[in-house]
Design brief:
The chain is built from nine helices and 15 strands. With about 300 residues, the protein is an alpha/beta fold. It has two domains: about 210 residues, Glutaredoxin (3-Layer(aba) Sandwich), CATH 3.40.30; about 80 residues. β8, α4 and β9 form a beta-alpha-beta unit. The longest helix is centred in the middle third of the chain and has 16 residues.
């Protein structure tokens, strides 16, 4: 694993957090779609805002949960002490499933927050940490002891990661309600107040925030990008309904060439700042409007998806 390349990818999370380890400067980086960079094993996240809980224009706290949640993938795994951990055992509690790594600066920065939350809401909450580290279990146990981690840690498997729809950046945290359904996903470091409000809302406790819902069109699981009728940074307003259907079909079948290994639609949702998917997607729109399709730089997975 090229750790240097991964740490460089974390950008502004870099030197300050590396020096601070567990502490460091506490900057608010709202959640968002993050560039997948799946040509690298993983990278530290640098998200921008999208469907996650935040503040509205009147500075009122807003909690956002998906209105069509999918159930948490059922799995059984052993924690670092050999105990069997089953997601099915935590129904009735709010669960935070945290994908992280010891080499990830924002992951280390949020550990004290998760420890405090687990202690504060021990009867309503269960944090589950899934480590992306390649280090042996004993090294992770030593890290956990030093950090005073009070929640189970498991090592990631390909099956677990696939079941959660892929984890292209770290940290990634899934929020699960008491019925065992995934209602939110956060990519990157968040202030503890964001998680605190969500936990209280899901646990049926009082919360000083407005609750809104949204349809998962790729914000939680990228596979649901196929249900999106709008894509960030892509102007579909000049297309007729039929043309829009053609455009979205192409964007869901043609691959982005930025190296993310996602479709154009998935990349636009996963990384709103990606210039490659934005350029290709808008080129598709212009081709459809002009009626003169030109050769697309995207790789087509469906030759029938081109326009007439």
């Amino acid at each position: 694993m090229n750790r240097i390349g991964i740490l460089l990818a974390s950008g502004c999370a870099g030197l300050a957090l590396l020096a601070a380890a567990f502490g460091g400067v506490r900057s608010y980086r709202p959640a968002a779609a993050v560039h997948a960079a799946m040509t690298e094993p993983k990278k530290a996240a640098q998200p921008a805002a999208d469907s996650s809980s935040t503040q509205d224009d009147n500075d009122e706290a807003v909690i956002r949960f998906v209105k069509n949640p999918e159930p948490i993938p059922l799995f059984m795994a052993h924690d670092l002490d050999g105990n069997v951990i089953s997601t099915a055992a935590y129904k009735g509690k709010v669960v935070l499933v945290n994908f992280w790594a010891t080499w990830c600066p924002p992951c280390r920065e949020e550990i004290p927050e998760l420890i405090k939350l687990q202690d504060k809401y021990k009867d309503q909450l269960q944090v589950l940490a899934i480590s992306e580290d390649e280090a042996p279990a004993e090294a992770l146990k030593a890290f956990a002891r030093q950090a005073h981690i009070n929640y189970p840690i498991m090592k990631v498997t390909a099956e677990i990661e696939t079941d959660f729809g892929g984890v292209p950046a770290l940290p990634t945290l899934f929020v699960i309600n008491k019925d065992g359904a995934i209602v939110q996903k956060h990519v990157g470091f968040y202030p503890v107040a964001v998680y605190d409000r969500e936990i209280r809302a899901l646990a049926g406790m009082s919360v000083d925030a407005k609750i809104e819902t949204f349809e998962d069109t790729g914000q939680i699981f990228l596979k649901n990008a196929k249900n999106a009728t709008e894509l960030p940074g892509v102007d579909l307003s000049k297309l007729t309904p039929a043309q829009k259907q053609v455009a979205l079909k192409r964007m869901n079948s043609e691959s982005c060439t930025c190296g993310c290994r996602l479709t154009l639609a998935q990349c636009r949702i996963n990384d709103t700042a990606c210039p490659t998917s934005r350029q290709i997607a808008n080129k598709i729109v212009q081709e459809i409007l002009s009626g003169k399709p030109s050769e697309s730089p995207a790789k087509s997975d469906d030759d029938d998806s081109s326009t007439d």
